[in-house]
Amino acid sequence: MPAIVLIGAQWGDEGKGKATDILGSQVQWVVRYQGGNNAGHTVVLPDGQDFALHLIPSGILTPGVRNVIGNGVVVDPGVLLEELSSLEARGVDTTSLMISADAHLIMPYHVAIDKVTERFLGKAKIGTTGRGIGPAYQDKVSRVGVRVADVLDEKILHQKVEAALELKNQILVKVYNRRALDVDEVVDTVLAHGRRFVDRIADTRLLLNQALESGESVLLEGSQGTLLDVDHGTYPFVTSSNPTAGGAAVGSGIGPNKITRVIGILKAYTTRVGSGPFPTELLDAMGEHLRKAGGEVGVTTGRPRRCGWFDAVIGRYATRVNGITDFFLTKLDVLSGLERVPICVGYEIDGRRVDEMPMTQTDVHHAVPVYEEMPGWFEDLSPYRDFDELPTAARDYVHRIEELVKAPVSAIGVGPGRDQTITRDV
Ligand code: IMP
What we know:
Layout: E1 3-8, H1 16-24, E2 29-32, E3 41-44, E4 50-53, E5 66-69, E6 74-75, H2 77-89, E7 97-100, E8 104-105, H3 108-121, H4 133-141, H5 154-175, H6 183-197, E9 201-202, H7 204-213, E10 218-221, H8 245-250, E11 259-267, E12 270-272, H9 285-293, E13 306-308, E14 310-311, H10 312-322, E15 326-330, E16 340-349, E17 352-354, H11 361-366, E18 368-375, H12 392-405, E19 409-413, E20 421-423
Parallel strand pairs: 1-10, 1-11, 2-5, 2-10, 5-7, 6-8, 7-9, 11-15, 14-16, 15-19
Antiparallel strand pairs: 3-4, 12-13, 16-17, 16-18, 19-20
Helix pairs in contact: 3-4, 3-5, 5-6
Inosinic acid binds next to helix 4.
Protein name: Adenylosuccinate synthetase
Binding site for IMP: 13-16, 38-41, 129, 143, 224, 239, 303
Catalytic activity: IMP + L-aspartate + GTP = N(6)-(1,2-dicarboxyethyl)-AMP + GDP + phosphate + 2 H(+)
């Protein structure tokens, strides 16, 4: 088992935390390769304790696993330290966590700019998590970012912050009418934080490649989801990084040929937070039912998630752009108790039938789902552990999804607990 990628196949929040947690016990390393503390994983352990992780890889909860925040991640130092302390306070050993020297830091001005930009956009806002993710990636690409390694060199850090603030302060003060940030204050805060994680800074791409060479296995954990990818998602309503499988190689520093399995996480229905198109969204009582039954509230922001039926166009698209080898289907139990379960098999766009993801943003916004109705089931699925014993209608639903998304389902979630999972040989 060399390198495995785990990626959300919809708009994020598919239940990756549980999958990472399960796979974490089969691998030696778990790596985050993009995004930052905009992510939110809830993991429920066998003793019933649940953990919400935002930045740190879910493997931290599996003893013996080494965890890496890769070069593709943007790290808010204050959030990192808080998350470490809260894990430690609950008895979790965090010593294995290492942070790439090349990961970028989310600076206080990134968070400030994220929030004011969203306010400025008004109705056209992206609905970001307000954690400074976009502005941090903007600086990375503009080559004015501050990296984790910069906390090791105060002089360089000072120069970089000074250069960055020269422009940012103009924007904050003159465009947004906000307070200017003080260079020394920002540097001092970052250094004070940095001193507390300095021992974790490492050349993680070297470590990961050495691990792979010595036969160890690595799980690359994507955050957000395929449709939130800055290249392949519903742009501009996306995040600012590449959660899709290709981003795993870039964001961790391993060769793409080391990746032998790409697991897509698919929720048995669809959810999205933030703005942007969502063809199967249910704005009626059924949407509310899914939200309640599925506990669909954002882990990071506490925002209610928009809910809708399963969209096979998106699932198939995810298979294609990620090279998904197999799927974990989550939250199948949430669909129990429905007379009929619609699946979106294609779209109608301005009178045309379309079976694949539309090419233009305009078409995505005009897409009206074409549904196929599957018979529902009434049994509580949470006690089931064997696929063949599931109610026939639930099995048929899974089989139809496999046919439509063009990849097999190797695991099915029937409840939030780690053990409430059905695995299949595919
Ligand atoms: P940002 O990543 O904070 O810039 O937000 C950009 C978009 O991605 C917004 O629509 C967010 O709601 C969405 N987003 C970011 N992180 C997550 C996540 O972990 N799950 C689901 N949506 C997310």
